[in-house]
Design a protein that fits this description.
- The chain is mostly beta strands.
- It folds into three domains: 112 residues, Immunoglobulins (Immunoglobulin-like); 105 residues, Immunoglobulin-like (Sandwich); 101 residues, Immunoglobulins (Immunoglobulin-like).
- It is 6% helix and 56% strand.
- It contains one helix and 26 strands.
- The longest helix is centred in the first third of the chain and has 23 residues.
């Protein structure tokens, strides 16, 4: 091939390459195909059971749909309480922390989830949640809100019964109402775990209208007397009935017995310097105005730090109030501190009074 032909061939090849490149640059790239995705839809996403009567169980249904274009895989079921149990076919919740499942829903298909609410032991408003996890990338956790209002088959009002603050030795009476829809309901007996300070008396039994429904109501008078030791009283009253569904009812009773001596329940020392002695003052006085004596202050137990105290009376002859100063020379080096002091007096039933204290010792500096 001569020189002229070689040049012509080279130019022809270059032109072909240029045309090919120009053609490629003028062409748009094809869009990438979208990845199929599942999509979970709950119908409904909230269940309101309305007014229920304890102790029965009630069931409602939720339809779980896959409106996406890929298979939806349900992975776990969970609920906030064992009283609320979801079930999808044979996949039932067996623990409140969640149960692993493998339920697969094709695009456009759905499954039914039963949600059963057990009202036993529930009272008034109930709010729970059922949680479903899946492979839906947008909603990996779907939640069904569950609400209800539970009317117990037998209601005690008030529950619990609180006598509040009661002066020691005083007699105090409170009244409770026991109501039920059962027309033949009767109270048999009320007992107080052998606590002789409490007695019960049936005031009457009648049929009344409550919230548009006819119910049986028993009124019971509960009396507390003779409680002389200061502090909290917690008693369970057992109410026995003729009703086969609720032959025994339990009423919690609380009272705080106030002693004749009034003092802080807790001494707050605040922040203390390492190695420093603790010194704190408080007032102790007689509620009744009767004179009394403070005999000593010590730590509870045998291993407590030493305690020094001074008690200044408001009247040298008939003291009804004291300004008490305690001092602990052996404070801990750092960290939280707490303990109990025993104050001894000459007041009957209040010879030894417990008083809590707490404070915090700053961490000692490591130096400059």
């Amino acid at each position: 091939m001569n020189g002229t032909n070689r040049i012509a061939g080279t130019m022809s090849l270059a032109l072909g390459v240029f045309v090919t490149m120009a053609s490629s640059c003028g062409q748009e790239a094809a869009p990438a195909a979208e990845v199929p995705r599942p999509n979970i839809v709950l119908e409904p996403s909230a269940l309101d059971f309305g007014k229920l009567y304890e102790p029965d169980s009630y069931t409602q249904q939720v339809t779980i749909r896959n409106t996406g274009d890929a298979e939806l895989v349900l992975r776990t079921l969970a609920s906030t309480c064992g009283c609320t149990v979801p079930r999808i076919g044979d996949a039932q919740l067996v623990q409140t922390k969640g149960t692993a499942i493998d339920v697969r829903i094709a695009p456009g298909e759905s499954v039914i989830m039963d949600v059963t609410l057990n009202s036993f032991g529930k009272l008034d408003k109930v709010e729970q949640k059922v949680t479903i996890t899946s492979n839906d990338p947008d909603t990996p956790t779907a939640i069904v809100e569950v609400t209800a209002f539970v009317e117990p088959i037998v209601r005690i009002t008030p529950w619990p019964l609180n006598f509040g603050d009661v002066q020691k030795g005083a007699t105090v009476t409170r009244t409770i109402a026991v109501t039920t829809k059962e027309p033949t309901f009767q109270l048999r007996r009320v007992s107080f775990d052998g606590d002789r300070r409490f007695k019960a008396k049936l005031l009457g039994l009648e049929r009344v209208i409550r919230d548009g429904e006819e119910v049986t109501r028993a009124m019971v008078e509960i009396t507390m007397s003779g409680a002389r030791t200061p502090g909290d009283i917690l008693v369970n009253a057992t109410i026995r009935t003729n009703y086969s569904v609720r032959r025994r009812l339990t009423l919690r009773i609380h009272a705080t017995i106030l002693g004749d001596l009034e003092a802080p329940k807790i001494l707050q020392f605040g922040a203390l310097e390492p190695g420093s002695a603790i010194e704190h003052s408080f007032t102790m006085k007689s509620r009744s105005g009767e004179p009394f004596k403070i005999l000593g202050v010590r730590h509870a137990g045998e291993n407590g730090a030493s305690v020094e105290f001074a008690a200044t009376p408001n009247d040298a002859d008939r003291p009804t109030s004291y300004e008490v100063t305690i001092r602990m020379p052996d404070a801990p080096q750092n960290g939280a501190m707490r303990g109990t002091l025993i104050i001894t007096t000459d007041v009957p039933d209040e010879e030894s009074l417990e008083m809590k204290y707490q404070g915090f010792v700053r961490v000692a500096s490591s130096g400059g």
